[in-house]
Amino acid sequence: MIKAKKSLGQNFLVDKNVIDKIIKTVPITNREILEVGPGTGNLTREILRSNPSKLYLIEKDSFLAESLKEIIDKKVTIFNDDILKFDENSLSKNKIIVFGNLPYNISTEIFSSWITNLKKDYWFSDLVLMFQKEVADRIIAQFNTSAYGRLSILANWRLHMNKICDIQPESFSPRPKIQSSLIHFTPKESFVEIKDPANLEKITRIFFRHRRKMLKKPFNHIFNGNTDLINKFNIDLNLRPQNLNFNTYYKLTIEYENLRS
Question: Which residue from 95, 141, 147, 172 could staple onto 11, CB 3.0 to 4.6 Å apart?
């Protein structure tokens, strides 16, 4: 029996109904698929039954990566690697569908790195990803809500997103103490051009460091009280960070880059 490792944030999906729902999110037949963290291969086997053209598996756990070799299929390539150090652009010239039950302890880091490392063109056509529900709620949050913040601003920059469902703890082994959520992401063809996504991360980090405080302090910290910008974007500095919409943060990032160039 394979035991999950807490250090790797492992919770193996075992619920056939949930697996079926994941598989039906996007057509798989004759497509190239990447599965991140396949674990014991429960989802992997169902993906293969849908007849993809290729299936890439990235599994950090050496024991699990070795055990996945029992899935003998010429379509399957297994990488015993850390997804945070892996170059997804090297997999294929075709756009890939990504499935991932992301480890809770590094899910936001994986997701954020995928967005910030994007080139103008996308290496994927779809991301079908599972997160801790609290994290998923932050990703899909709209402005003027308590969950709105860095993750939602970053995700909305390059991606359309659709929450598929919530998933109960009993769908996993071992059972986590919290719910999970499944989200389907697709690329935005039209988006605000930012030179360096790290600047968007920096701007949002400063603004949301004290999310219940007014905008005045972080704005002055970044822009030194530039009244022209305040008037240009009609910003009320008595508001809080959650009250500025997505596009305002993207445009402020561009202004920040222009000031530094």
Answer: 172
- The Cα–Cα gap between 121 and 127 comes to 15
Answer for the pair 166, 135: CB distance below 8 angstroms, yes or no: no
CATH superfamily, region 6-187:
Vaccinia Virus protein VP39 (3.40.50.150)
Beta strands in the chain (DSSP E): 12-13, 32-36, 54-58, 76-79, 96-101, 124-132, 159-167, 172-173, 180-187
pLDDT single digits (tens) 87-134? 999 999 999 999 998 888 889 999 999 999 998 899 999 999 999 999
CA quadruple 65, 124, 159, 15: dihedral, nearest 10:
-40
For residues 53 and 137, what is the distance between their CA atoms, to the nearest angstrom? Answer: 33
Q: Give the burial class of 185: count Cβ atoms within 10 A of its Cβ; 0-12 exposed, 13-18 middle, 19 or more buried.
A: buried
Q: Are 86 and 58 in contact (CB under 8 A)?
A: yes
Longest dimension (CA), the chain: 64
CA geometry: angle 119, 103, 146, nearest 5 deg: 75
Task: Name residue, tokens 């109960």.
Answer: 168
| Residue 138 · residue 152 · CB < 8 Å | yes
Is residue 149 a contact partner of residue 196, using CB atoms and an 8 Å limit? no
Query: Global pTM?
Result: 0.92
- Cα 24 to Cα 94: distance, rounded to the nearest angstrom: 21
For the chain, give every domain's residue range.
6-187, 197-260
Q: Which fold has domain 197-260?
A: Helicase, Ruva Protein; domain 3 (1.10.8)
Encode pLDDT of 128-169 as tens digits: 999 999 999 999 999 999 999 999 999 999 999 999 999 999
